[in-house]
Design a protein that fits this description.
The structure holds two protein chains of two kinds. By secondary structure, chain A is mainly alpha-helical. Chain A contains 13 helices and no strands. The relative contact order of chain A is 0.14. Chain B folds into two domains: 218 residues, P-loop containing nucleotide triphosphate hydrolases (Rossmann fold); 110 residues, Alpha-Beta Plaits, CATH 3.30.70.3100. In chain B, the strands form three sheets. In chain B, strands 6-7-8-3-9-10 form a six-stranded mixed β-sheet, with helices on both faces. A four-stranded antiparallel β-sheet of chain B has the order 2-1-4-5. In chain B, helix 3 crosses helix 4, helix 3 packs parallel to helix 5 and helix 5 packs parallel to helix 6. Chain B is elongated. Classes of the chains: A mainly alpha, B alpha/beta.
């Protein structure tokens, strides 16, 4: 992976130099802070229930998961293909895969920082004398990072396919919503195609893998493999699309 | 250093480059000329490995561009058209990023950054944001970035495009200096820019090579250089003048059909002599011996635009719109009948 670390470093720096990233960070942290306080007050001080709500069962969690990764990945490839920076990168001794992976991991690191605010709330409560279940909280956080990585990989595919960042973001939302809702909608489908969609939906049930493992506080390596494998597959697809677009540039 | 063998690049039905072959030796400066869409950028992208050729082979510094792409990229410093740099970074950060991409050590990056910034005259701008620099400065930063890892081959695609005349002179001077240490391939559609820095020229038109050589070689091949002579009618006879001028010709010049044209123009006689080398000294001696009263003796060489126009259109016409820019058309001259 020649040049991977150089690209990762530049992308992380680049993200933190973008106003949009800071706006998203502040908005997400504020929303999570508000939800944390509201949930604690609403459920009579159930700390673990609050963190379960913040890291998986709230609508706000999924809204952030669907919207944030595409907004962060939208510029990654589409803008650089247009602006020529990708040509600059791919004429350096760097493979296409290293470029895609470096850019993806930078977005995942940013989202990991963003979601780290939830364990911070746990720390605040710990200092106040109420100890959360750190195992469950830690796994909930890991789950959030893995879901972010999966959706960011889909965002990379969208960015590689699009000619403008706006289109990339829109396509990313559509991909994420489709993947998330596919298992629910696929049940009603019939016929051969419906059967294939159902089979795919069973293999790609994000919600199920998050609920059965990370939200329960019981780690199953199969669930980690699920997220890593699908993320890898989508990154591979993004790399091939970049290669294809390079051929026609 | 660069060995290009029969490369063709197609984009669907469109053939951008067809059957292009050329070699560049170490230390040579080669200018790629062509109109917009001639295939210059496509060829340069194929040289860098960014774009694979549909057919044909390219070797750079002994490495195949397709099978040893990463090795080829290490030996190339490439400045793409439009200078695609990260505008949100400082100049020093951009150089450090390039250094890390090429696996350079931190101390080496620091040393080379200082050297290349000094080289391009931007030592005092290392803390400036790339996006805040003028276009000319950005162009120089692009060259500094391309130079950082000490490449053997420099490939510069339209490095003076969009610059004002002063900035163009600066970048041109810099490229001329770089040519002393690197093998340089430079492309432009502004022909005088290339003429100023490149020893050898490759002319592309519709994706094919229409000429390859030094400007002198192209002039010799295509002709067009001539001497203009204006003599007072009272001091010479047109026919005698024509014979005397024909007597000065030798070698290829002598074989050329219609090498000397003479016509009467009021009180004067005008003569045009198509020759490869300026014969002014011999003409001076002849004029002195014959007692001609010369009111004009001038040497004219076609510009690259005129040569390119002829090659591109495949005719004696140069394809330029402005009559003042056009090469002299000998057919316009009415020859004196003997």
């Amino acid at each position: 992976m020649n040049g991977f670390s150089a690209i990762l470093r530049r992308e992380v720096t680049g993200l933190f130099l973008t106003p949009l990233a800071w706006v998203l960070l502040v908005a997400a942290v504020s929303l999570n802070g508000f939800l944390c306080v509201a949930a604690l007050m609403g459920n009579g001080g159930d700390v673990d229930g609050t963190f379960n709500f913040l890291l998986g069962s709230s609508g706000a969690y999924w809204m952030l998961m669907i919207t944030l990764p595409p907004l962060l990945t939208m510029r990654s490839i589409s803008e650089e293909l247009k602006g020529g920076q990708l040509e600059f990168l791919l004429t350096a001794p760097v493979t296409d895969g290293a470029v895609v992976l470096g850019k993806h991991l930078a977005v995942v690191l940013f989202l990991a920082v963003l979601w780290s605010v939830v364990p911070m709330y746990g720390l605040v409560l710990e200092i106040q004398g109420v100890s959360p279940d750190w195992g469950q909280l830690g796994l909930g956080y890991l789950g959030a990072v893995l879901v972010s990585a999966l959706f960011a990989a889909l965002g990379m595919v969208a960015s590689a396919m699009s000619s403008t960042p706006l289109l990339a973001a829109f396509l990313g939302f559509i991909f994420n919503i489709t993947i998330l809702l596919l298992p629910m909608g696929a049940g009603a489908l019939g016929g051969t195609i419906g059967g294939l969609v159902k089979a795919l939906a069973n293999k790609l049930n994000v919600l199920l893998h998050l609920q059965t493992s990370f939200m329960r506080g019981a780690l199953d390596s199969a669930d980690i493999i699920f997220f890593v494998a699908w993320t890898g597959l989508f990154l591979f697809a993004a790399t091939r699309i970049v290669e294809g677009r390079r051929m026609w540039s | 250093m660069i060995d290009v063998q029969k490369i063709t690049r197609r984009f669907g039905a469109l053939t951008a480059v067809e059957d292009l072959t050329f070699q560049v030796t170490r230390g040579e400066v080669v200018g790629f000329l062509g109109l917009n869409g001639a295939g210059k950028s496509t060829t340069m992208r194929m040289l860098t490995g960014y774009l694979p050729a549909t057919s044909g082979n390219i070797k750079i510094a002994g490495h195949d561009v397709l099978t040893e792409s990463l090795k080829v990229r290490r030996s190339i410093g490439y400045l793409a058209e439009g200078v695609p740099l990260y505008r949100e970074h400082r100049v020093s950060e951009m150089l450090a990023f390039q250094g890390r991409l090429f696996g350079m050590k931190r101390s080496e990056i620091k040393r080379r950054s200082e050297e290349v910034l000094d080289r391009v005259g931007l030592s005092d701008r290392s803390r400036s944001l790339v996006g805040k620099l003028s276009k000319g400065m950005r162009q120089r930063v692009g060259i500094a970035v391309a130079l950082l890892h000490e490449p053997e081959v420099l490939i510069l695609d339209e490095p003076t495009s969009g610059l004002d005349p002063l900035q163009r002179v600066g970048v041109r001077k810099l490229i001329a200096e770089l040519a002393e240490e690197h093998t340089v391939m430079i492309s432009s559609h502004i022909l005088p820019e290339i003429e100023a820095v490149a020893g050898r020229l490759i002319l592309l038109h519709h994706g094919t090579k229409v000429a390859d050589g030094t400007k002198a070689e192209l002039l010799a091949k295509l002709g067009g250089s001539h001497l203009k002579l204006v003599v007072a009618a009272a001091s010479a006879k047109p026919n005698a003048l024509k014979e005397d001028l024909q007597g000065l010709l030798s070698g290829e010049d002598k074989k050329r059909e219609g090498a000397v044209f003479v016509r009467e123009a009021g009180e004067s006689i005008e003569a045009l002599v198509r020759v490869e080398k300026n014969p002014s000294a011999s003409i001076g001696l002849l004029a002195s011996a014959r007692g001609w009263i010369l009111s004009e003796l001038s040497w004219h060489e076609p510009s690259l635009e005129q040569l390119f126009g002829r090659l591109a259109t495949g005719s004696a016409e140069d394809g330029l719109d402005s009559p003042s820019e056009r090469a002299p058309d000998y057919r316009e001259i009415v020859e004196v009948k003997a």
